[in-house]
Amino acid sequence: MQSIVARTNAAGLVGPELGTDIRWIKAVQAFPMAILLGITFSSMAPRLFRPLINLIVFIPAWCIYWYMRLLLRSMTRQEFRDYERASDVEAKTKLLEATPDKKFPITAWIMSRYKSHERSPEQIAHDFIVASFESTPSTAGTIYFVMAELVTRPELVEELREEILSVSVDGRLPQTQLNELEKLDSVLRECSRTNPFGHMALFRMLRQPVKLSLGPELPSGSVICVDVHQIPISESLWDRPEAFDPMRFYNLRRKPGNESRYHFTSLSSDTPGWGDGPQACPGRTFAASTLKITLAHLIMNYDFQLPFGGRKPKRDSMPNGSMKPDMMAQIMFREREQTNRST
After folding, report:
1. Is residue 225 classed as helix, strand or coil in its secondary structure?
2. Which CATH number is 255's domain given?
3. pLDDT at res. 275
């Protein structure tokens, strides 16, 4: 799944030339795995020795990081010059426009968020690496959870196939935000509700002491966050929260006044995983499009099932509380006959 996501994301993030370069795709896949190994080994060491251990266990991750910066150098320097040469606000705004015939303007978007003295090709390259790191394992993990549910619900797979066919134009998905796939969107949100990407979210560091309404005064430098684990299982928020209901949000949007609510990318107090306010994930629409395109391709072109005697893929956690897939889980895929799938 991570390989599929890395390839799907790459062309949109870094353009077709670097996005199809196998060196970049492999580096994008290897980077989060190197960090995962570093975190795992660091957590196993006694706290006293972790600063020293970290100097060693994260060496592979740092090597991949600098290799990715090297691969990005030519592209980021050229796009940095293009942005700086734009003579006025109108010209810079035009660079921010996203159209189907060019690379997603992430470089211009990143640069627009910096003051002139803060912008540099090196900073842009760093931000590209962060964007690739943040988007790849989280998107792959979401697909993992969706496939874990679909593989045990063949009737749901057929329902989603019918929806995909109903919105396809000449056998292809429309070039929009894919909002037409309302049932698939509902499945994505229900999967994220029942399998949040981490136990905590909305991390913030206090710049000054804060007195809580209940509890002690927290000193500056304290890290506070939201307990994501409790929200999905709250009976005050959800009907039968323990049940996986793939059409839960599809049905909720059918109620008057809810037409624009309960989408996979919606921001609200009951879905803190995307963050909130000006610090909300800026790539959530891009991630949703990647997920829907990838899942539509898998659903329409493959049959899948658990191996004989196999078990449903489970959720595990890393030492820092974020999601970790069951690396021993297996799902069998078989290409569907041409007459049974969309072109």
Report:
1. strand
2. 1.10.630.10
3. 80
